[in-house]
Amino acid sequence: MRLQGKVAVVTGSGRGIGGAMARGFAREGAHIVLISRTLSQLKEQEAWIRGNTTSSVLTIEADVGSESDVQRIVDESVKAFGKIDILANCAGITMVSPSESLSLENWHKCLRINLDGTFLCCQKVGAHMIERGEGGKMINITSIVAHAAIPERAAYAASKGGVMQLTQNLGVEWAKHNIQVNAISPGFIRTEIVQDLISKGVHKPERMIARIPAGRLGEVEDLVGPALFLATADSNYVTGTILKVDGGWLANGYV
Ligand SMILES: NC(=O)c1ccc[n+]([C@@H]2O[C@H](COP(=O)([O-])OP(=O)(O)OC[C@H]3O[C@@H](n4cnc5c(N)ncnc54)[C@H](O)[C@@H]3O)[C@@H](O)[C@H]2O)c1
Predict the structure, then answer these.
(1) Does residue 63's CB lie within 6 angstroms of at least one atom of ligand 1?
(2) What amino acid positions are annotated as catalytic residues?
(3) What percent of the chain has pLDDT over 90?
(4) Could you tell me the domains of the chain?
(5) pLDDT for residue 237 is more than 90
(6) Is 196 in the pocket of ligand 1 (CB under 6 A)?
(7) Which value, to the nearest 10 degrees, does the dihedral of the CA atoms of residues 119, 133, 58, 47 take?
């Protein structure tokens, strides 16, 4: 087991990509701190991990955009497990709106959760890792929209572009502490967020798939292997990098 004895905090792990990463880390022996704003989601994930692995689980209902909540995540995790080795920042929201009518309130909401939330979790967990002196691993989640434009995603794209630059910056700044900070840019992954956009007609599956050389949408399990690479010693010489996991969407010039 590649993460035996490690402690992983996974935000946004009530469902979707974060849920899959938490289960993947637990299968490899890590103790898991599950974070979401929705307690019922956390209980489902907790039951799965307890039923299918030997890992210990702590669930914390928290808002990653709140500084005091994020400090509480760190304090409760360290109290329960003595340390944090891995942070995966998967909490996030999407925001689709014509830019000319996007309210400042929604712009701030998206930036607050996706960018402030990622920064706060990196900052508070980073302070713990630096003080402990044993290094650590951070995995942020950006998006293909941080690299290429999709109309009506101004707030979301700005937040994910910010996460990309934040990742690079922290990777450089904390290399001396043996903390590797990397990010994954997922393409279209079939989670509730994407299913919801498909059912509202915002996303057209045929159009999405037409640009994906792999010929299908991604599944949450497609993110687990890349996340494990970034969470284990396999990536000890990899920092400040952005790993695209998109079935070839960004590389594809033939559309
Ligand atoms: N699904 C995709 O195609 C896709 C593509 C690229 C990037 N992403 C990114 O991956 C991440 C996860 O996406 P997903 O599709 O799994 O979404 P999801 O909506 O299925 O899950 C998001 C999780 O984050 C939690 N969350 C939301 N706001 C929070 C907050 N303020 N504090 C704590 N928890 C909060 C939700 O409760 C939920 O558990 C997001 O950052 C998203 O932008 C998703």
Answers:
(1) yes
(2) 156
(3) 94
(4) 7-188+220-242 (3.40.50.720)
(5) yes
(6) no
(7) 90
